[in-house]
Amino acid sequence: MCDDVVRSEYEARPSVGAHGKRAMIPRLFNALYMHGPLGTAWRICAAAQNRFGNIAICKHLCPFVQGALSNIQRSLDSRFDRSHGTDTSGVVPLNALDIKSKNIEEGIWYEPMSVKVFRQLMKALARDPQRYDFVDFGSGKGRVLLLASDYGFRRITGVEFAPELHEIAMRNVAVLERNAGGPGNVEALCMDATEYAIPNVPVVLFFYSPFTGSVMEQVIGNVLTSFAMQPREMVLLFYGSNPNSIDLLKATHWPCRELAIHADWSRFTNYRGFIFTSPAA
Ligand SMILES: C[S@@+](CC[C@H](N)C(=O)[O-])C[C@H]1O[C@@H](n2cnc3c(N)ncnc32)[C@H](O)[C@@H]1O
After folding, report:
1. Pick from 23, 55, 79: which residue ends a domain?
2. Checking CA distances to 108, which of 28, 93, 211, 246 falls within 20 to 30 Å?
3. Ligand 1 centre distance from Cα of residue 54 (Å)
4. Residues 20 and 100 in one domain
């Protein structure tokens, strides 16, 4: 069912040189196109360190440049929080958190969604949000919840298993409500995604690559069971690059489309975006 996949432009770009070796210039352009100047500079440093790490100047200069790049990246990403008075920025590894779930091994670290990419995904959704509930699986500090609140979804729910991140998300939702002058329709839940009961209404389920493997498999299984019990419009939006997760989503045999996403150059890494729609949608 996934034959209407539109390959994202950067994936289709050739990166193999005339002699079968990945030539330097096309690789550089490919990296610039996919990851932007920051991500490319970061990768060059990493490669130089790998290759020439025993040369003193490289050993000291590369980490210094990477540190500077990280500071620039953090500062660009925290523009969202500076303008909203929230706290959604920064990368948090899961082993720094007190998570009780057995699914921690297959969980992905917290990293806030790119505002630029989220807006593109919402545009690609091409549906009236007022007819749908919205669920963010792995909602972390709640950036996606805040972003989704601009679109008029009926109800917005975040599901996050790390209590520390959930607490921050609750504070961010409170800021949102304060700014809006009253309670809204955004709810943050602290629980494992596999235990979340999907609402029996038309729904957009959002995944910013929150988990992999058997956890992804269980959540997709829950989606399919929920659909079988009550066929309705269900849309899965996935932003990530884990091939196994993408294969699991494709195995639903729901119509799917890969989105041509313009990379957010303030990020070191950009991913692939997919939209899957239930057969009834
Ligand atoms: C890449 S971040 C997603 C960021 C978020 N959606 C946002 O607003 O930008 C992945 C999140 O998934 C959470 N997570 C991973 N496994 C989970 C699970 N089994 N149940 C609930 N949350 C999970 C992590 O704690 C992390 O916060």
Report:
1. 79
2. 28
3. 38
4. no
| Same domain, yes or no: 225 and 122 | yes
| CATH classification of the domain holding 113 | 3.40.50.150
Structure tokens given for 212: 């992999």
Q: Give the H/E segment covering residue 49.
A: helix 24-52
- Per-residue pLDDT 10s for the chain (281 aa) are 443 333 333 333 333 344 445 688 888 888 888 888 888 998 888 888 888 888 888 888 888 888 898 889 889 889 999 999 999 999 999 999 999 999 999 999 999 999 999 999 999 999 999 999 999 999 999 999 999 999 999 999 999 999 999 999 999 999 999 999 988 999 999 999 999 999 999 999 999 999 999 999 999 999 999 999 999 999 999 999 999 999 999 999 999 999 999 989 888 888 999 999 999 65
Q: Distance, CA 253 to ligand 1 centroid (Å)?
A: 25
> Domain span at residue 10?
2-79
Helix axes 56-77, 24-52, angle to 10 degrees: 120
Task: Tell me, using a 6 A CB cutoff, whether residue 165 lines ligand 1.
Answer: yes
Instruction: Kindly give the distance from the C-alpha atom of residue 153 to the centroid of ligand 1, in angstroms, as a whole number.
Output: 21
CB 222 within 8 A of CB 194: yes
